[in-house]
Amino acid sequence: MGADKWNKVIEFLKTSNATPEKVLNMLKTIYSKRTGPESDYEVVRNSWAYIVVGAIANKTGTPKDNKKRGTRNIIRNWVKTKQYESDWRCFHMRKVKNKKLNKVEWDQGSHEDFKKISAERHLKQINDIWVSKIGKKIKSTLTPTGKFPRSSPLSNNLKKVYGE
Q1: Among 12, 23, 61, 145, who pairs with 81 as Cys (CB 3.0-4.6 Å)?
Q2: Same domain for 18 and 88?
Q3: Dist. CA 113–CA 26, nearest whole Å
Q4: Are 141 and 148 spatial neighbours (Cβ–Cβ below 8 Å)?
Q5: Which residues pair with 96 in a beta bridge?
Q6: Residues 90 and 20 in one domain
């Protein structure tokens, strides 16, 4: 890669609030070879796509009438529910300092974190998961009734999280 291409990257970084440490950590995460098992955080974050696909397939939050509804309408209905906020907060964790133990731990996202994102943005992000390659792969594993089979990646991830 030529110096002029790197100069574009450096100019962009100068105008952002990125620090060299943050950029280096991001690059290591993206381009490094994986060693060791997934962390608990990664297992939980990777399970979010399964929650999204399952909720849409089961029309969570949608009235139980027999009207035919589009995917965006189903997603919009789910995003309006308290269950969606609860799910989002559980799967979008943040680091908090435990003052008693004097260490950093993961905790669920806050209500404020959730409210910082508009409903339309939540809708777009959920739809992006639904139409993504991983979303299509997850949809293909669902039973005809929209349920996950007993042995699925989601159930395996949940077993890891809960230590079963």
Answers
A1: 61
A2: no
A3: 21
A4: yes
A5: 105
A6: no
Give pLDDT tens digits for 75-127. 999 999 999 999 999 999 888 888 888 888 888 888 999 999 999 999 999 99
Name the domain count of the chain: 2
Structure tokens given for 33: 């070879």
Tokens representing residue 88 in the block: 């989002």
Q: Give the other-Cβ count within 10 Å of 88's Cβ.
A: 21
- Predicted confidence (pLDDT) per residue in 133-142, tens digit: 999 999 988 8
From the list 68, 58, 50, 63, the residue with the least C-alpha distance to 126 is: 50
Query: Is there a single domain that holds both residue 27 and residue 73?
Result: no
Rg of the chain over Cα atoms, rounded to whole angstroms, equals 19
Q: Over 90: is that where the pLDDT of 155 sits?
A: no
pTM summary value: 0.68
d(CA 138, CA 152): 9
Same domain, 91 and 13: no
Domain range for 66: 38-162
